[in-house]
Amino acid sequence: MQLDEVRHGLEAFIADEIGAQARLGSLAESDGHAGLTFLFEIVDGARTLPYVIKLPPRGVRRSGNTDVYRQAPLLRALHADGLPVPDVPWAWEHEDNPWFGLPFIIMERLPGHTFFVWDPAAGVSRDPADCERYWTDCVTTLARLHAFDWQRHLPDWEAPMELEREITRWERIYAQAPEPAWARAAAATERALLDSMPAALPFGLFHGDYQPGNCLYQDGSLVGVIDWELSGIGAQLLDLGWLLMVADAAIWTPGWMPVNPLPLARVRALYAAGRGEDFDHVDWFHALANYRLASIACLNVKLHRTGKRHDPIWEHNGRSVLPMYERALALVAGA
């Protein structure tokens, strides 16, 4: 969807749903994930209110991360429970709306900045004390999110994800690796994970891409968690493993190292303190995270190199594909 289409849709939406006294202010495209993401403002009298709208691409089957509407009940439930996520004042589940002809959600736009750990944006502090707070708040907030009572608040939101499926679903992704050695390493890692698969506890809500780059910080403190496209119900240690993988200097290459990560043992300790329990099998989930990101890189590096989706970041990640699979195998062997 082009910017002008979104502009016309929002102008009509504001007139219909808010009133003639309100108007569309600024509008800009943002970095989305599976869908289309735009930042905009509603000017209503003396108030200027910032929002985010997410829409799916046209012609794509609505499933999983391309079903943007599924985030609406989740974010509303989390927000109502006092957790740091944006509220969703408007959402439309089906295509039969007069504004966009697509499902959409409109979220409040929270203040603050993200902390993309490999290459923080200009103006984001790299001071070790500030970075320590970014990482610490990220871990402790994860423990709070995992304590969310999904069975009470979202019992029918999502079919639980079986852990075996979380391993095998990446086969068709890593099969597209541009380098045969990557696909061979992926298959070996998949077999090792399946052969050592633990009981998937604790079980509940997971984010799916939890790291400081998907958190918002203001005045040094975490104020929001965003980008819930990959969320689901399943093994929550997926998120802890992912955070450990992001912080793990063993897999990253010079020039693409995470900025001032906490030691891995401290990440685990902070999470355990927040949950009131130290969990088994954390190393296995750390290995799974390496396998997941390396497999995702197999596809995205191919798309970048063939010119189908220009994104130089994946060349950085591509240099870590084999180290990630090797690290996963070592973690499984030692788990």
Relevant terms:
335 residues; alpha+beta; Phosphorylase Kinase, domain 1; Aminoglycoside 3'-phosphotransferase, Chain: A, domain 2; five-stranded antiparallel beta sheet; 12 helices; 42% helix
Structure description:
The chain has 335 residues and is α+β, with helices and mostly antiparallel strands. It folds into two domains: 106 residues, Phosphorylase Kinase, domain 1; 207 residues, Aminoglycoside 3'-phosphotransferase, Chain: A, domain 2, CATH 3.90.1200. The protein contains twelve helices and nine strands. The strands form three sheets. A five-stranded antiparallel β-sheet has the order 1-2-3-5-4, with helices on one face. A two-stranded antiparallel sheet has the order 6-9. The chain has a two-stranded antiparallel ribbon with strand order 7-8. The longest helix has 24 residues. The protein is globular. The mean pLDDT is 95.
Name of the CATH superfamily of the largest domain: Aminoglycoside phosphotransferase (APH), C-terminal lobe
Q: Can you tell me the CATH architecture of the largest domain? A: Alpha-Beta Complex
The helix-strand sequence is: HEEEHEEHHHHHEEEEHHHHH
Strand order of the largest sheet: 1-2-3-5-4
Terminal Cα separation, in Å?
A: 47 Å
The percentage of residues in β strands lies in 15-25%
Taken from the alpha-carbon principal axes, the silhouette is globular
* Mean pLDDT value: 95
Number of strands: 9
Biggest sheet record: 5 strands, antiparallel
**How many H/I helices?**
12
Low-confidence stretches: none
